[in-house]
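Changelog-adjacent note: as of this version, every example in the card shows the full chain rather than a window. The one below runs 72 residues end to end.
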Amino acid sequence: MDYGKLTLHIDRLLQERGLSKNAVCKALDIPRTNFNRYCRNDFQRLDALFVCKLCHYLDIEVGDLIEYVRPE
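Full-length structure tokens:
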């Protein structure tokens, strides 16, 4: 059964703020390969600490970062 998916809006948020992926990874001590997977929405599970770090760093709410997309 298709329950939909979660989409992360990392690329859009970084573009809006003029931030580079390298700067974010360095500031938050996140491996670039993992960060790239999240940016591509290529993940099975979300790390809660990663979400908290990113929300804190970007000064956003979880709903600004994550969107639930219903199945078609």
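Structural remarks: The chain has one domain: 5-69.
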